[in-house]
């Protein structure tokens, strides 16, 4: 079975990420859980690591942020990004990390995927959430990257800001996520 999936995935032809593949990791993170997962992934894949930021950041207040996100989801309005990626063409693999927001892909990541053309590239989503899962976010990534090869994503429980639980990626949880990330990367072909 491992062999069958290796054949389907061009990245695994040699059982490792070919050295000439250029990797970009773009992540959105408010309370740094997704950032911590991005850093764990980055240690294993290398490449460029970029935080996705808006020109006008969301409010510090959680409730105000939830309300703003709800409005943006309703209207489809996408805030302009502060982050710019220098020549996206040069990357073969783009990993995109984000929290679940209102059971959806957060508007800034929708903005990123609409702004940058990832056609022909391998796209790999990863996520943290408060325990309710990825919602529609991975599906939306596929919809917004119709000409990309979207690989199986990774998701783990992060904080619960609503209940005042912010950063959790430390101690045993951090170790557990390091192992889970390694297993997932092996499964999708990023073996080093
Ligand atoms: C505006 C907003 C909406 C959220 N909506 C959800 C949700 O629908 N489901 C869920 O499981 N977690 C939800 N969360 C919790 C985050 O997904 C979770 O805390 C995540 O780990 C935060 O990642 P970060 O530390 O990288 O910002 C929401 C958080 C925010 C700020």
TrEMBL record:
Q: Which InterPro entries match?
A: Flavodoxin/NO_synth, Flavoprotein-like_sf
Where is coiled-coil annotated?
none
Q: What keyword terms does UniProt attach to this protein?
A: Signal
Name one molecular function that GO assigns to this entry: FMN binding
Q: Which residues form the Flavodoxin-like domain?
A: 23-189
Cross-referenced PANTHER family, in alphabetical order? EXPORTED PROTEIN-RELATED, FLAVODOXIN-LIKE DOMAIN-CONTAINING PROTEIN
- Protein name per its UniProtKB record: Flavodoxin
Q: Which organism is it from?
A: Niabella drilacis (strain DSM 25811 / CCM 8410 / CCUG 62505 / LMG 26954 / E90)
